[in-house]
Structure formats: structure tokens, C-alpha cells
Amino acid sequence: MLRIQTLLVERGDQAKIARAAGINKPAMSRIVHGKEVPYPKRGKAIAEAVGWPGDWRELFEDIDGEGGEL
Known about the structure:
mainly alpha, 51% helix, 434 Repressor (Amino-terminal Domain), 0% strand
């Protein structure tokens, strides 16, 4: 599971975050499910939209069920 998936559950729905990041819903879904690479521009926009304080790349790391890295 990617960290962004858990954050979307906590901070709002995927469509709302996609709009805030300026990304269309299908692309956002592909990114969130690991089917599309969140190149820097999109990754940074998503991180800003969810209020992520750290490096945007951390949002797209695999984590275990409790939020820790694998």
C-alpha cells in the first residue's frame, strides 16, 4: 500500500485532492494505485494538496498496514 492511499482516507476524497492538485481524476487514480509514476510536478502538487510537510516522494513509498515503511 502506498502512503498516499492512507492519507486520502484521512484527509479527503480522491476527487477533491485531484482538483486541488490540478490533476484529472483518472490520472489521480492511476497514481494513487501505483499504475502511473507521479513525476515531480504532479507529485509535488499532490503533496501540497494533502498538506504533506515532508519530501513529496515519501507519499509514494510502500508502507505496511500501520503506516511504517516496508
